[in-house]
Amino acid sequence: MKPTLLVLAAGMGSRYGGLKQIDPMGPSGETILDYSVFDAIRAGFGKVVFIIRPDFEKDFRERIAAKFAGRIEVGFAFQTI
Predict the structure, then answer these.
(1) DSSP conformation class of 23
(2) Cα 78 from Cα 40, distance rounded (Å)
(3) Nearest in space to 60 (alpha carbons), one of 51, 70, 73
(4) For an engineered disulfide with 40, which of 5, 58, 67, 74 has Cβ 3.0 to 4.6 Å away?
(5) How far apart are the C-alpha atoms of 61 and 9, rounded to whole Å?
């Protein structure tokens, strides 16, 4: 059984002014989470689970999960507090 990476990504980004977790920042538009998932794949992880707010789900599915389909299993858990 391969390990699972748990990523805490439910922050509002109120000081930043947006969803810094999925905003492009790398030379080719990579996000901070792209780097985390890429490193997890290279390290042998079999799954990544993002802890997010329910209202972030659509953006995370479109901008993060879709990039890694077929390379690593992606799941979501929701923080509602």
Answers:
(1) S
(2) 21
(3) 51
(4) 5
(5) 13
Supply the pLDDT for residue 20: 79
Q: How far is it, in rounded angstroms, from Cα 54 to Cα 32?
A: 20
Containing 32, the helix (H) or strand (E) segment is helix 32-42
pLDDT of res. 38 = 96
User: Which amino acid belongs to residue 11?
Assistant: G
| pTM (predicted TM-score) | 0.87
| CA atoms of 73 and 59, how far apart (whole Å) | 17
80 in Cβ contact with 54 (< 8 Å): yes
Question: Is the separation of the CB atoms in 31 and 25 below 8 Å?
Answer: yes
